[in-house]
Write a structure and sequence with these properties.
Length: about 270
Amino acid sequence: MPGVLRSELALWVGATTALAFLIFGDSWLSDLSNLLWYNFLFSWAFASMLWLAFGVVRHADALAIKLGEPYGTIILTLAVTGIEVVMIATVMLTGQDNPTLARDTLFSVLMIVLNGMVGLTLLLGGLQHGEQSYNLRGAADTFSALIGGDPNVGESTIPGQPFLRTVDNTLAFPADASADPHLTGLIYAGANWDLIEDLDAEIFADTLLAGLPFLPSSPSAPDYRDAIVQGDQVLTGGINAATIQAAFADHGSRRSSRASWPTGSPYSA
């Protein structure tokens, strides 16, 4: 029982806060001219709501892991959406009529998430890892194939050629290396596509995301391969390491040779 009380402390604090404001709220909020009192009430209410929101997401995440897809994603989406709707509805039920409040609130959330959170993430990543560059062509072709499930990229205007290029290829270093970044990117994308087919798109995407933190600020191509191997080690304990090594070996990268691939990876110029 003590363990349950500690793990659900946010619930008890939130319930106590709600009860306190329900009973004493009118007198507490009747005069907010005292700046210290105003800041105290605001900090108390804001901290409680934030703590409760994280508690809701924690429970939703636990249910998502137990139920799996697609129910996990649905539960997480409904949890976050429910928090936003309840907060916006609460604000709209108080104060003066403001028909644009819901729209303005959603715009504010988008601005904070897309600009504030992403900007803060980029800033902290830059401070820790330094300036990072990437091969846009190889990354774009990989993401196009990953999202669309089609190795053929773009629409060609050349008669008889339905696409611009394909990541389902046997291009390899050093024979097919080129000064054209599109052609060089295809070698990387070819290795990625082999892994998408061998491991499954979702597994490859998870492994790629888990491996990106292991890339140095100026990685070489073997660093990219090794980062994916490290990502697999984190996720599965290295179950797919041999498959990953084989995919890169087919495109000119072998564990014993770092000279066969030039400096740069799909995420490094």
